[in-house]
Amino acid sequence: MHHRNVGDLMTKGVVSVRRDTSFKDIAKQLTEHEITAVPVVDDDGRPVGVVSEADLLRKEAGLLDPAGLLPPPHPRPQDRARIDATTAEGLMSSPVVVARSEWSVVEAARVMERHNVKRLPVVDEAGRLVGVVSRTDLLQLFLRRDHAILEEITGDVLVRTLGLAPGAVAVTVTDGKVSLDGVVDRRSLIPVVTQLCRGVDGVVDVRARLGFKADDTSRPAAAPR
Prior knowledge:
CATH topology of the largest domain: CBS-domain
Number of helices: 9
Radius of gyration: 26 Å
Number of strands: 9
Distance between the termini: 50 Å
Strand content: 15-25%
């Protein structure tokens, strides 16, 4: 079984800016490359922060309304410095949360959720920027075709990994939802089969209707004293 990791899904050749990149140059990069955020790197190419559209809009929202129709803004003291900033160093969100290319999709997704971020700069062993992985990139797994999922489950999981006879378990896949029907040798195999199928890239859900020939999960009755 082969699971695609962050290195397989990330965007390479990433657009980045330096600490002294100006507000207008950052806005230009976001617009020209049709991206919503850009990593900020130091002189060694290591990410030190991220500037997003939200960071730029925060500055815009902190300005006075030219028409004088809106009341003056009253930003929180902790936001004042970022509103007044004119370069990436002042605008960026820092410290930056990063990923490694060898991470699994699950690990990257959990870090995004934990830190409430939409993307992660990906770094190499020296901490240098090598790519960016986004929520959209991670969702590519669920665009995998049903027939590819079916082939992996029937061939790699059931036959080669678990050693089941071909055809012992009937597998159907519809929109990433897997159905398993058949009989396995031992009852203890049922949760193993289900868990391995859930781990296949692109699987959304698994429904197992499996019987067993022998129950190896029940304890033998205690001998009478």
